[in-house]
Description:
CATH superfamily of the largest domain: Response regulator
Low-confidence stretches: none
Number of domains: 2
Strand content: 15-25%
CATH architecture of the largest domain: 3-Layer(aba) Sandwich
Amino acid sequence: MRILVAEDERMLADSVAAGLRGESLAVDVAYNGEAALERLAVHDYDVLILDRDLPRVHGDDVCRKAVEAGGRVRILMLTAAGDVRSRVAGLSLGADDYLPKPFAFEELLARVRALSRRANAADPPILEHAGISLDPAHLQVFRAGRYVPLARKEFGVLARLLRARGAVVSAEELLEKVWDERIDPFTNTVRTTMMKLRRKLGEPQVIETVPGVGYRIP
Length: 218
């Protein structure tokens, strides 16, 4: 899942981003509405966490333009105003959900995951394929009953491959969905992570490389 946090309170934005990254999610941050629109034009986000009172371009306008663009991004609007009228106004702009400040991170995370399920085909609670079992909620992986401890990005890569159900996943897609804009797209990050993931999963090797195309778990 790739998320954009658009929030002008830098401490709050960075705190939310850090918490979401701790859940193996790819997160970008924009501190104003103009930067948010620039990122939305470049990346295919699953969820936009949008502060309504953004500078440069107001959050309402960001929401409206994101909806008009016709993408699949789901919008969680944040605001200090939690009255019914404000919630109705935000939802009428096309936001999918509304969360007043202050909020508990656990609730934010639950709402983000719920929105992601609406943006994508619903996943089963446990992803199972080729003898591998992955629990997204508890960040646990088992192969043939053996617990496999994985780093956050290794977990994200494996989840993406399992969701593909045997289809090939390109390195570009992995960079887009597992990492965020802080990563250099010309590094060998995907290859290095794949090597570590294969080693931890053990023998026999289950991840195939399709030369010039990507990776898959058949």
